[in-house]
Amino acid sequence: MTLRKKIAVSTIAASVALTALAGIPLSSKGLAEKLGVNGVVHASSSLADTQLVSDLKKLRAALVSTGGLAAVEAFQLELDALDVNVKGDIVAPIVDKFKPTGSEETQLENLFHDAVKLSYNPSVAGLEELRTKYGTLLQSFATEAGVTDLTVDDIAKYFFDIQKELIKQVESKDLAGLLDIIKDSNSLNALLQDVLAALPDNEYAVEKIFLHYGVTTEDVLEVLSQAKIAIKDDTKFLAAAGALYTAYKSLNTTTPPTTNPPGGGIVTPVTPLPVSTDKLLNDLKAALDKATDAEKAAIVAKFVTDAKAEIAKLAAISASSSVTIVNGQAVLQLDEKSVLSAIAGINAVAAKVKEVAPASAVAKTTLKIDLGAVSQKDVVLNLSDAVVKAAADGNVSGVTFTIGKFEVTVPVGGSFSSAIALTIKKSDASAEVVGTLKSVSEVYDFNLTVGGVAKTSFDQPIVISIPLGDTTGLDKELLSVAKIVDGKLVFHGGRVSGSSIIESRDSFSSYVVVENKVSFSDIASVEAWAGREISVVAAKGAIEGKSVGLFAPKDKVTRAEFAKMLIRALDLENGSATEGFADVDSAAWYAPYVAAAAQLKIINGRSDTKFDPNATITRAEMATMIARALKVSQGASDVADVNAALKDFADAGKINASLKDGVAFAATHKIVVGNAGKFLPNNNATRAEAAVIIYRALNFDN
């Protein structure tokens, strides 16, 4: 492209252009109020009613309403956190053209950086500091260039016009086009050249100053390129760009006009249903309208079957065409309208089933989004704010992303109630990571933002299904998902299913799957009936030795110890759970496990305020905890006839009434078995017995 100008732009203007592209709009008051020149009255009043300011207000509001504001603010912080030397290198192509003295060079760099920082976080104090510190300096460079009356109006108008033109040109891009620009420096430069070239000639006093010092368009583009390169976290850059894109789309989406109903309020436009859903509902209405009472039952029964098939079809979303490669990352950005339509269809069908056949009400479903085969090691999964909110408010419980053989299921609702961005990075499982253990997966590193805010722990689990590599010669029962913490492995278990291992996580870090062989030197006396069980449960990290190489199989199990065994083994950890027992120190090793068990109503205190963590657990208590945990984790059903299940135990009368249901369940499923016709409900369990019981629970089949 042949440049028809000139352009002379300050680093401040360049930064405004860059931040507009990245998703950081000007505030509604604009730069006129933020950027002051010493001795000059700012021009916010003259700009307050312009179309540009009105457009910027709308864009700001759109970022808020679509949940993108947090993402752009996160990127602002990333820019602001750059090392001062890096900032100096970025602005050097322009600052050097002014040929400043030593002190002037530092002042100019600080001026540019402080002005940009102020535009990110405007304040009266910051504005006054800018005017006081740099007003004289800026005007001295302007005077030398023949501009004796540079005003804030001049600066503000120039900045506004750059951003307005950039917004205009970006608005015409679809998402794929926008991401193509972001990932490619040449494309980004070309866009910015188009923006600068579109500005009118001979209209800006600011240009005269920079033309005098020989600042060129290429200098501006170099600053922009260096600023983008300096941001190491592509995820935040892409999240911000995606947020801006979504905000633009929401501004440009044509929706039916809203009307005010007689009772007041606003009628929200309805998302159109998929054609197949519309037909299914219309066909049902037509059939019922013509049917006799005798025929209606069969029509409704068929509708329920068809409805479940329709929901399954709508929930299955092929997303391979929505994946774009950006800087080596595979980035998923779904077509929001089509996903919202699918969710609306699921909700409508589920509501109709509940209406015509309440006994057949449809449980909440999971959206299944298949990205297909993705060769990139890094993947960014995005769910827009509108999609998350629609899913959480309707008949959708979560979203399962499938990437080749890997799957991750993210819940919606609760702490997952705004735009979600999940980054997955894979790397080789080197000896430095796994030591002497044998790995059967790559290392998976997860990062999550909700509403643009980084999340490392959450109140609902995210379920990951990691594909296993070659397991030839390995003991699959000893495979465990290991969390990498400060270079060490912490074992969290996981359920092997086919060629994958499934694990629920209440926090995110880096994970790898290994064969974890654990041996103890003191289990010979229980080897015959508990040796295998101890090895497996220890491999899963659900039970540990009392010291290195020693298991202490005949020691009694405390209530706190069994809470940890059960919660860890059955994948029920929840770091956000809390408990109110006066005798449970929040800093104690067992506190999070007791809290998780109490929240799920798996375990009760000895009273409302006392848990008694160090007391030994009885066989009946253990059976009850197991039963409750399996009902939570596996959806297990209660025993229909408790008395019948207990009739063969001579000591059934000694079982506490509140524990009989649990004992009946555990005995029926042979998780806890009796001895010589007795259940021995009040006997204390040993660590070896606990390992056997936990092992049976791990292998429970409802």
What is this entry, summarized?
The protein has 26 helices and 17 strands. It is of the alpha+beta class and about 700 residues long. It folds into 3 domains: about 10-250, no CATH class; about 275-515, no CATH class; about 525-700, no CATH class.
Quickly list its features:
disordered N terminus; 3 domains; seven-stranded mixed β-sheet; 702 residues; alpha+beta
- The fraction of residues in strands falls at 5-15%
Q: Give the number of helices.
A: 26
Terminal Cα span = 69 Å
Rough shape? globular
Q: Describe the largest sheet.
A: 10 strands, mixed
Number of strands: 17
- Structural domains: how many: 3
Low-confidence stretches: 1-53, 116-128, 253-269
Radius of gyration, in Å, reads: 32 Å
Helix/strand-derived category reads alpha+beta
DSSP helix fraction: 40-55%
* Mean pLDDT over all positions: 77
Summarize the structure in words.
There is one protein chain. The chain has 702 residues and is α+β, with helices and mostly antiparallel strands. It folds into three domains: 11-251, no CATH class; 275-515, no CATH class; 524-698, no CATH class. Helix content is 47%, strand content 14%. The chain contains 26 helices and 17 strands. Strands 2, 3, 5, 8, 9, 10, 11, 13, 14 and 17 form a ten-stranded mixed beta sheet that branches. β2 and β3 form a beta hairpin. α1 packs across α13, α15 (275-290) packs antiparallel against α16 (293-315) and α21 (559-569) packs parallel to α23 (619-634). The longest helix is centred in the middle third of the chain and has 23 residues, at 293-315. The protein is globular, with a radius of gyration of 32 Å. The chain starts with 10 loop residues before the first helix and ends with a helix. Mean pLDDT is 77; it is low at 1-53, 116-128 and 253-269.
